[in-house]
Design brief:
alpha+beta, globular, four-stranded antiparallel β-sheet, 1 helix, about 15% helix, Alpha-Beta Plaits
Amino acid sequence: MSGRPDQLGIYEIRLRGKLDQTWSDWLGSVTIAFEDDPDGPGFTTLTGRLDQAALHGVLTRICYLNLTVTSVDQMESTAL
């Protein structure tokens, strides 16, 4: 991504632990999927089309929930 704030990207944010679907709207209408892990708390994946401001907002809200971010990946981007 060129770093322009007017670009949307499909982002996948992976968290340690379980976050259920009820948080989707509060996190900016991201899709939430949970993956069990028999050796631990499992992982939650958030996926959404976000610009840079929205991405930072989602990450800030995750911080408020005291969840551990394990990865943030950009899947694709498009100009607004």
